[in-house]
Write a structure and sequence with these properties.
The chain is mainly alpha-helical. 73% of the residues lie in helices and 0% in strands. The protein contains 5 helices and no strands. The site of fe (ii) ion has 5 residues, from helix 3 and helix 4.
Length: 168
Amino acid sequence: MHYAELADEFLKDHRHVTRRLSRILRSLKQGEVEGAVEIAKELDTLAGPHIQFEEAVLYPEVARIRGRGYAQRLYREHRIGQTALRALLNEKQPLSEERLTELIQQFKVAVEHAASCGTLLSHLTELPDLRQREMLKMLNTFVEQGTPWTRLPPPPVVRNPEPDAPPE
Ligand SMILES: [Fe+2]
């Protein structure tokens, strides 16, 4: 029962985050770095609670179902996105051609990640109602706290990720 509510909340933010990531990537590709920085400021605020929820609540479930290797990749992609966002917000402008190319690469990873990340919530459908309610509560708490993405501790890096679990 709580899944519908959880999905509503999650997917609404997910759309905001994905749209902004795509717009940042587009602006950077067009060399409009100032425009990208403006969108990045919005993204930082919007994405924080969403990412926090994914890392603390969703990905542990994903790890259980799809294997730790798969989940580790998701954390690593978040780290790439967070690093790129920090750089875009903090590095001195104008960026060198080389830095711009690197940032474009990193935001590309983030955009692709976001596209696949949205479907992962379906892993929560089978969970007991009580657990779903707890998850919804956690999502709301993160939203209330409103920690920007760049202020979240970076997700752990795993040097040798485990292989994915074999398909069931
Ligand atoms: Fe994600």
